[in-house]
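Methods — Computational structure assignment.
A single polypeptide chain was analysed. Its primary sequence is given first, followed by the predicted tertiary structure written as structure tokens.
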Amino acid sequence: MEQIFDRIYIDSDICNGKPIIRGKRITVQTIMEFLSAGESAEEILKQYPSLEPEDITACMRYATELLNHSFVIKQSVA
């Protein structure tokens, strides 16, 4: 398991190698999807009692860090 960010790890044997929180089977993507759907951090913590508030903050910081990189989105040809 490789720590790639504060509390965020990648393990090819867990969740198909997606970034996860502290070795749990909870992906950063899952937490970000909850947040983008309007769930509060408190609601997420109730649904995932093994998480800590710092885990949610780490997910947001990780997503923000990813946006520091340049991406090119290609349009599909219809």
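Note: The mean pLDDT is 92.
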